[in-house]
Design goal:
Layout lengths: L5 H11 L12 H20 L3 H14 L3 E2 L11 E6 L3 E6 L9 E7 L4 E12 L2 E9 L12 E8 L5 E6 L19 H4 L3 H4 L7 E4 L11 H14 L9 E7 L4 E3 L5 E4 L2 H15 L8 E7 L15 H12 L5 H6 L2 E5 L2 E2 L21 E4 L3 E2 L10 H13 L4 E3 L9 E2 L3 H5 L4 E6 L1 E3 L6 E4 H16 L3
Parallel strand pairs: 1-2, 4-13, 4-14, 14-20, 15-21, 16-18
Antiparallel strand pairs: 2-3, 3-13, 5-6, 5-10, 6-9, 7-8, 7-10, 11-12, 12-22, 16-20, 17-19, 21-22
The chain binds manganese (II) ion (2 copies).
């Protein structure tokens, strides 16, 4: 056999072997500029919507600016019409009616707009040792030790018996006080230091420090608690019992910002999953032409606690919305679903060189390598995954390659290192062909997560490709 010359080897290698490249070796100057513009909008979106309610309101504001109108049942719809439905202020479903009938299916991007946080308990307010606190119950998968000694803001609503609603917002804006959860000093932390990380900060110690200044005479008791309640009453007109029908959420009091000397990344609270929610929304709002198939964007609540509940992805609210659209065309929902495609857009774990042990180098998502596809998620042998079929992955590969989307495919960490789930299975269970894809994140679920701008932008391009797909 003749020895192979260098050129022939190079050509064979390029033809046969996968040649993934860092996205920065593929994007041109104009695209890099568009990427920066896109990320500026994304950072503003993050700051405007730190809870599912605030995020839903911001989604609606952006959608209405782009010509979307509230949908009401039996509204006649024609190609190019843009409608949305807000589900109880916490989830939003949008559709741009396509040229083809719904009987030929819809193109869906599904993401979630809830993020891990600390919710207040129903009886939250108490005083201990002349300090006032709110008791919390964490929401979603958090590492509790990350939530102490950081500035926190409080957002949410108190629903009153008369049907009105009071919006609470504390510690978000400049000049406002912040809340905090204290931690032990190292001098007295010897015993705590010996505990496993997951046990070092028990859930019942995640109490928000609210105040220390008493009112009334020194012979009185509960003076600090009363002082805090009076401040809440002065500002919001609420009394302690109103806290029982409130949804108040403590979130990090930080704004989204660039990370790195090169500003190539974004640090923020709640990238999971507003980074994909914004990509899906922006892609829908930016469609220049009426899509072939109806483009649908669902931004759901409750993903971080299992997608259950009336505002979660398992809720019939989604089926009702699509069924209403189908009814307008005399199509059965099941016929629409079986021809539909859904990109379940949720974040994935980015490879972290600080913690190589939990990743499998050949199947990880890397920062700046674009939107990360996941054929399956799950844990312990793919349990809880919808596991897209090969044909579906091939379909998305083609879509993305034709649209010049930079993508990678990966798993979430090593086999048996852990795992996770998304809304993918709840879409697939509806008989909708579904694939997971999303932005790789560093320190996922931490109060401050990091993503790469390039991956954010490529995810937006990916969503657009899905909406623009002709068949
Ligand atoms: Mn997520
Ligand atoms: Mn998550």
């Amino acid at each position: 056999m003749e020895p192979m010359d260098k050129d022939a080897f190079k050509q064979l290698k390029e033809t046969l072997l996968s040649g993934r490249k860092n996205g920065y070796d593929r994007l041109n100057g104009a695209e890099l500029e568009a990427m920066e513009d896109y990320c500026t909008g994304y950072k503003a979106f993050l700051d405007a919507g730190k809870t599912e309610r605030l995020c839903a309101a911001e989604v609606i504001r952006l959608a209405e600016t782009a010509g979307y109108r509230p949908y009401s049942r039996r509204l006649a719809l024609s190609a190019g019409d843009k409608v949305y439905v807000c589900n109880r202020g916490k989830a939003v479903m949008l559709a741009c009616i396509g040229k083809k009938p719904l009987a030929e299916g819809v193109q869906i991007a599904a993401a979630h707009i809830d993020s891990p946080r600390l919710d207040l308990k129903p009886n939250p307010l108490y005083e201990d040792s002349e300090l006032a606190y709110f008791k919390t119950h964490y929401y979603g998968g958090i590492r509790k030790y990350q939530w102490v000694t950081i500035p926190l803001a409080l957002h949410g609503v108190a629903a009153l018996k008369d049907g009105t609603r009071v919006t609470v917002r504390i510690g978000e804006d400049g000049g406002e006080p912040r809340l905090v959860i204290t931690d032990l000093l190292p001098h007295l932390g010897a015993a705590q230091n010996k505990k496993p990380l997951a046990e070092a900060v028990p859930g019942e110690t995640l109490n928000l420090l609210l105040g220390s200044r008493p009112i009334g005479g020194e012979e009185e008791s509960g003076r600090v608690k009363l002082a805090v309640m009076k401040l809440l009453h002065d500002k919001y007109g609420i009394v302690e019992d109103d806290l029982t029908s409130a949804e108040l959420e403590a979130v990090p009091a930080v704004k989204a910002c660039d990370i790195g000397l090169d500003r190539s990344m974004i640090g923020a609270y709640g990238h999971d999953d507003r980074v994909c929610a914004y990509a899906a929304l922006r892609a829908l709002l930016d469609l220049e032409e009426t899509p072939e198939k109806t483009a649908v964007c669902i931004l759901a609540d409750k993903e971080e606690i299992g997608s259950d509940g009336v505002t979660g992805m398992q809720s019939a609210a989604f089926d009702t919305f699509i069924e209403d659209l189908c009814a307008a065309q005399g199509t059965a929902l099941r016929i629409c679903y079986e021809k539909s495609f859904c990109l379940s857009a949720d974040v994935t774990a980015a490879y972290d060189p600080n913690y190589p042990d939990v990743f499998e180098k050949r199947n990880e998502s890397q920062l700046n390598y674009g939107i990360g596809l996941c054929k399956y998620t799950g844990a312990r042998g793919k349990s809880g995954a919808s596991d897209a079929d090969a044909e579906t992955v091939a379909y998305v590969r083609r879509l993305f390659d034709e649209a010049g989307v930079i993508w990678q495919i990966s798993e979430l960490g090593k086999v048996d290192a852990g795992g996770g789930g998304t809304v993918a299975m709840y879409m697939a269970n509806r008989n909708i062909t579904t694939l997971d894809a999303g932005v790789p994140v560093l320190s996922m679920h931490a109060p401050f997560e990091t993503v790469s701008k390039l991956d954010c932008y490529e995810t937006y391009k990916g969503m657009k490709a899905v909406f623009q797909a002709g068949n």
